[in-house]
Amino acid sequence: MIWLGRAILALVLLFLYAPIAVMVLMGFNASDLYALPFVPTLHWFSELAGNDRLIAASRNSVLVALVTAVVATALGTLAALALSRRSFRGKSLLRLLLLPPIAIPWLITGTAMLVFFYWTGIGRGLHAMILGHVALAIPYVVLVVGTGLASLRADLEEAAMSLGATPFGAFRSVTLPLLAPSLVAAALFAFAVSLDQFVVSYFLAAPGVTTLPVEIYTSIRKGFTPEINAVSTILLGASVALFLVFAGLTRIGGERERR
Amino acid sequence: MSAPSTPEGRRARPSIASPEGRRARPAIATAALLLPAYAWLLVAVFLPLGAMLFFSFLKTNPFGSKAPLVFTGAHYLAFVTRPYLVDVAITSLRLGFWTTGICAAIGLPTALAIARATRGRVRQTVFLLAILPFWTNGLVRIFSWTMLLRQGGILDDLVHLVLPGVGSVGLLYSFPAIVVGLVHAYLPYMILTCYLAVAGIDDALIDAARSLGARLPTVFATVILPLALPGLVSGSILIFVPVIGSFMEPRILGGRIGVTMGTVIEDQFTQAYNWPLGSALSFTMLGIVLAIFALFSSVLRGRLAP
């Protein structure tokens, strides 16, 4: 049974990673028709350095992701503090309201944003994308920070207050330092949600103002070159790096902490 | 635990620290904590959904004309007046069921294999490898399949290396190609939810069943499957909903045959500029998805009731 299990795992991992490996390899392959044999080259990466559109789109992607990470983490953390530390009426309804941004297909959320932003004069462009990305990221931040808060003992803060600290002082000097790993993890998650977001960005992109995934999509539909593989490889690398830091911070997949 | 842990003890102490004022302020403080996030969600998600609902009852786009708004429910009858949309919806539902079914058929055994055939650092590594892809860009992963699946693509090259003279196995621009891409895109969700469900199954439970004479298929059907069911259900929901709304995957991998609800809706917003029809189709799609869930959840509740 053990061997059957390992065989299944090997096949599934092959299925998950083979296409990605091929995509990366073709970014380093000389043929512009993705033809074998494999002839290694860095040509497509140096070509990329001269592609102003892709560079501008990448810069937009990083900018939107940075702003999203900061804003979503701030707003989401405040909400998480109220949702997991305070008791009030309507809490379960507010928790429920965090679901639509995650659960409704992005196609519907994205087109709805397009309709509303266009109608109200907010318009399209980077600011509209930031509005949308932050909304998509807030529920995840609440989840990650809420999980972090649940593992902290509330009575630590109360102990600080009974020793004379103000509520805010107790939060800043006791809870915040202990919560820091969760905050960083939440910010990374929000950054990744934004960096990989395609659907919402696609509908909110203004002519000439796009993000990397939107630019990749346009290129794929127009007929593509290995330059797209090169830029996709860089994007993949960024996502994997973010994931590894996030996994380290939240210890997902690790053994459960013993109490 | 040295602190008093009775509810009274916990509640009493802050009022020792600050005798007055803390009772009146919590409501305001709570509201202040919640307001920024929910105001943002209101502007960026809930008002847009409301605006789209309003639009779906408009006869035409209201932009650029001074004419008074004309309301109609006709866009919701699109499935009657444009029969080809029924075929499109069926294509979307078939994509949803095939993708979800294959993900379940692969995801549950994979989750079981992680939980039963690995341990320690290997388990941690395999688990992280299995869920890492959903952090990477979905578009990039769909794009990589075009290189594998097209005629004369990498898969063709490999097959011909082993079996020269065989015809092309190029799948690109076909229904199976879309399913392969979607399974690749959403399999990590199913592995994750199933793993969370089966990781906690006690070995003693399986040993007990076996020592009472149950064969492996029986153990699977009577012990493992019922315990894994919540994982399968939540995984299926996480996969089915976005697949029904997918448009980029069918476009890239399906080419001309990749016409789905998603691509038809996208067209209304980016090509045809018939936003009212696109809005009505979006809400119809959402309604179909919710109806399917209502159906399945009542079936499941009937099955699970003691």
Overview of the structural elements:
The complex is a heterodimer of chains A (259) and B (306). Chain A is mainly α and 259 residues long. Chain A has twelve helices and no strands. Chain A folds into two domains: 1-41, no CATH class; 52-250, MetI-like (MetI-like fold, Orthogonal Bundle). Helices cover 77% and strands 0% of the residues of chain A. Chain B has two domains: 7-46, no CATH class; 79-304, MetI-like fold (Orthogonal Bundle), CATH 1.10.3720. Chain B is built from 13 helices and no strands. Chain B is globular and about 75 Å long. The two termini of chain B are 39 Å apart. Mean pLDDT of chain B is 83; it is low at 1-24. Chains A and B meet through helix 1, helix 3, helix 5, helix 6 and helix 7 of A and helix 1, helix 2, helix 4, helix 5 and helix 6 of B.
* Architecture (CATH level 2) name of the largest domain in chain A: Orthogonal Bundle
* Quaternary form: heterodimer
The domain count of chain A comes to 2
Q: How many strand elements of chain B?
A: 0
Membrane topology (chain A): Multi-pass membrane protein
Keywords (chain A): Cell membrane, Membrane, Transmembrane, Transmembrane helix, Transport
InterPro entries (chain A): Bact_Polyamine_Transport (IPR051789), MetI-like (IPR000515), MetI-like_sf (IPR035906)
Protein name (chain A): ABC transporter permease
